[in-house]
């Protein structure tokens, strides 16, 4: 399957399209004299305002080639009359229902139709899918991962309210690439979450304006056909006959006008279709006409194709709808210099300027409607004035050329400016540590990328992830999972495989365990930032040492180690590019997996520390860490107790109770603190103690950023970050005596806090972003990708 193209070139296999590239931006098509093939999907073949707007737009395209997709029927007939390619799908007209069986049936129908459409788009090699309604958009987006083409929803109706509307908005936020709204009112109804995806593009009419002679001829012809006198004042209400269109208000207003001696006629132009309730409503209207004695004064014309001529023959247009999203009939009438009276609701006020080119009234206020009509029917000069201003407003804002230009610009953006679909994957987000800070920086680089993880504790999220789109797996629903997450090591592989990443082109996993085991979509690029190979599998004894669990549980768990090693090795082999977070991790990757990896040191958020400012150093050492056994905080506690040195331990975790039992009177356990409190302690400490073997270790560099040195064990990631005598010291054996000995010689050194701070600056976030982007570009090129650099690397942000 070809990989998508979002820029001037194309990412994936070699382009197999003869004389065309799959899909490319408008600029490339323009340069090569090619036209983008846009698939316009309509889920029904019946003709209404949405279909008329679609046909008007597609018949006026300049740089795009339309391919209409829909059921056989009237829409197909008209599209072929325009000479457009029409691909037939069965279509599916889903209905809102309270019946659970009906809901299930409609969902199945939409899924089947969605699959047919995705297969059609892929087979036809279309460049963009343009769905002509919300329902069409849902079906077009269901399986968009199959063809990986941009999907644009053209939203022409108000989204449903309640739970259904909320579900649709959430689905659109995840699946739609762009949203076209036909009015600002519709855009606002979508909510803030969809604002960045949505663009308002008004419907347009053909610049086919009747001159006075043509208008007079149409007036004579239509009135003769419908049996209306040439001198009679005619009011038209045009549109589908439906309760929400409120044609009964127009009938009631005409009744009031008759009482005021305005002997006008009302034409109800349109038909009742789609629903049984609409047909029943038409019968209600016909009965109402008889009851009010308006027989002969109200004419039901049925559906008409000659809308221009109908408008020319009318003197006034009513639009009485509850909440009209736009009101295409308004601009069609205004284009022929017909003044309008319409409800002050929906998108109508964006078209009709009250007291300028028409009059507005409140929905359902029949007396106000009749008063507005009386005013215009009584004053021919005012009708002409409003008609002329209406005509000028349509020419300025609502001609089809404006619509087409904006839509084709949107197509260009969908190809040229759309970034790769990026997903970030992390093992689990239920703690705060260096790995989670890496995820936070990845979120800064790719702010629109969702973060997939097995479980997440919202109370433990870093502040920089507060606005992130975090998606958990079914493991999140396991009782007690957040506190006992390590006991479920045997189910994480299945949870990671269940993540649905089919729509994403670039997947960046942040992994010290399971995240690199995702199911990579065909053609996608998977880059793994490896904090360390899975400790549980490759260093089991050390991993469980000191954990407060029964020995039989440890023995039982060891049974799974061979399986996890095999699983880890197989999934790592499928990764396109491995990044190790330190030299020691690179060595482990080579030893365990037999694979090459690049080293990119983790990002250190130096911005929160600000410029270095000298402070008074106080008489205490400091530990900042999660309190788990492999961190070896017990060495720091024991060494400070042995040497009678003050130690402040910041952090929490399962090893806390054991550490308290080891601690002497000089040890203080401060618990978890806010960042500014930790920073204050770092600035005032003698040194940070770092006794464990860490894969990298961001905390020592944070202490360096505060101008303070580090005493670390001579192993692991500390070898990459600490230069003995410049920004810290090493102890050589993981014993309390070795650490105590180094602490005794610590005071013999003179520490230059300014130089220590400068050393930390070399490990800032900007450096991480730059090096990561280089690897992303290289890995993508290795997979035969040819995207522009700006598209590949994500959003440029100021990180340092």
UniProtKB/TrEMBL annotation:
CDD domains: GT4_PimA-like
Entries under InterPro entries matching the protein: Glyco_trans_1, Glyco_trans_4-like_N, Glycosyltransferase_grp1
Alphabetized Gene3D superfamilies for the sequence: Glycogen Phosphorylase B
Residue span, Glycosyltransferase subfamily 4-like N-terminal domain: 48-208, 433-608
Residues in coiled coil: none
Any one GO molecular function term: glycosyltransferase activity
This protein's name: Glycosyl transferase
Domain Glycosyl transferase family: 220-392, 618-744
């Amino acid at each position: 399957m070809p990989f998508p193209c979002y820029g001037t070139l194309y990412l994936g296999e070699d382009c197999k399209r003869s004389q065309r590239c799959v899909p490319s931006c408008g600029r490339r098509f323009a340069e090569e004299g090619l036209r983008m093939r846009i698939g316009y999907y309509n889920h029904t073949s019946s003709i209404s305002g949405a279909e008329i707007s679609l046909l008007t737009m597609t018949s006026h395209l300049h740089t795009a080639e339309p391919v209409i997709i829909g059921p056989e029927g009237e829409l197909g007939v008209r599209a072929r009359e325009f000479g457009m390619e029409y691909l037939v799908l069965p279509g599916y007209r889903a209905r809102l229902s309270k019946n659970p069986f009906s809901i299930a049936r409609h969902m199945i129908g939409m899924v089947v139709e969605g699959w047919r459409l995705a297969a059609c788009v892929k087979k036809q090699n279309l460049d963009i899918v343009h769905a002509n309604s919300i329902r069409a958009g849902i079906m077009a987006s269901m399986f968009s991962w199959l063809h990986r083409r941009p999907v644009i929803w053209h939203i022409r109706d108000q989204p449903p309210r309640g739970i259904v509307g909320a579900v649709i908005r959430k689905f659109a936020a995840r699946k739609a690439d762009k949203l076209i709204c036909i009015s600002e009112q519709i855009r606002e109804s979508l909510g803030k979450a969809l604002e960045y995806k949505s663009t308002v593009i008004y419907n347009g009419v053909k610049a086919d304006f009747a001159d006075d002679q043509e208008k007079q001829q149409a007036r004579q012809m239509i009135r003769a056909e419908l049996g209306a006198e040439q001198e009679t004042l005619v009011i038209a209400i045009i549109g589908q006959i439906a309760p929400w269109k409120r044609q009964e208000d127009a009938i009631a207003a005409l009744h009031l006008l008759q009482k005021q001696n305005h002997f006008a006629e009302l034409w109800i132009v349109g038909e009742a279709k789609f629903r049984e309730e609409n047909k029943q409503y038409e019968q209600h209207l016909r009965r109402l006409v008889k009851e009010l004695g308006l027989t002969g004064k109200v004419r039901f014309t049925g559906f008409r194709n000659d809308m221009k001529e109908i408008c020319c023959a009318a003197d006034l247009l009513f639009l009485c709808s509850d909440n009209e999203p736009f009101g295409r009939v308004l601009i069609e009438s205004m284009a022929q210099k017909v003044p309008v009276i319409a409800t002050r609701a929906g998108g109508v006020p964006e078209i009709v300027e009250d007291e300028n080119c028409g009059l507005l009234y409140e929905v359902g206020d029949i007396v106000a409607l009749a008063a507005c009509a009386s005013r215009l029917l009584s004053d021919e000069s005012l009708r002409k004035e409003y008609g002329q201003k209406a005509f000028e407003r349509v020419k300025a804002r609502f001609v089809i050329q404006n619509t087409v230009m904006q839509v084709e610009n949107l197509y260009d953006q969908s190809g040229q400016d759309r970034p790769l679909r990026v997903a970030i994957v992390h093992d689990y987000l239920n703690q705060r540590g260096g790995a989670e800070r890496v995820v936070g920086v990845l979120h800064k680089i790719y702010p629109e990328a969702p973060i997939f993880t097995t479980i997440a504790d919202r109370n433990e999220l870093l502040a920089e992830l507060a606005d992130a789109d975090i998606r958990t797996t079914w493991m999140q629903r396991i009782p007690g999972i957040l506190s006992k997450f390590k006991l479920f090591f045997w189910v994480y592989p299945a949870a990671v495989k269940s993540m649905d990443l089919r729509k994403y082109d670039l997947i960046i996993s942040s992994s010290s365990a399971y995240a690199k085991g995702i199911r990579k979509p065909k053609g996608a690029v998977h880059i793994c930032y490896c904090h360390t190979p899975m400790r549980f599998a490759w260093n089991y004894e050390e991993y469980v040492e000191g954990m407060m669990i029964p020995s039989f549980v440890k023995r039982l768990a060891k049974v799974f180690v061979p399986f996890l090693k095999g699983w880890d090795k197989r999934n790592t082999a499928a990764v396109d590019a491995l990044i190790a977070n330190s030299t020691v991790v690179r060595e482990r990757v080579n030893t365990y997996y037999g694979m090459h990896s690049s080293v990119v040191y983790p990002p250190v958020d130096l911005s929160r520390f600000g410029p270095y400012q000298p402070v008074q150093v106080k008489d205490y050492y400091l530990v900042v860490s999660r309190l788990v056994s492999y961190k070896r905080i017990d060495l720091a506690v024991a060494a400070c107790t042995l040497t009678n040195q003050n130690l402040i331990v910041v952090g929490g975790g399962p090893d806390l109770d054991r550490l308290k039992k080891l601690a002497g009177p000089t040890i203080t356990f401060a618990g978890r603190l806010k960042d500014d409190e930790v920073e204050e302690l770092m600035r005032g400490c003698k040194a940070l103690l770092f006794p464990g073997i860490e894969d990298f270790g961001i905390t020592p560099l944070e202490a360096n950023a505060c101008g303070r040195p580090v005493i670390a064990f001579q192993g692991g990631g500390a070898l990459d970050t600490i230069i003995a005598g410049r920004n810290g010291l090493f102890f050589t054996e993981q014993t309390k005596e070795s650490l105590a000995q180094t602490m005794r010689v610590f005071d013999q050194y003179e520490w230059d806090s300014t130089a220590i701070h400068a050393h930390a600056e070399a490990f800032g976030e900007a450096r991480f972003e730059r090096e990561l982007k280089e690897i992303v570009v290289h890995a993508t090129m290795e997979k035969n990708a040819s995207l522009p650099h700006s598209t590949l690397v994500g959003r440029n942000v100021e990180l340092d």
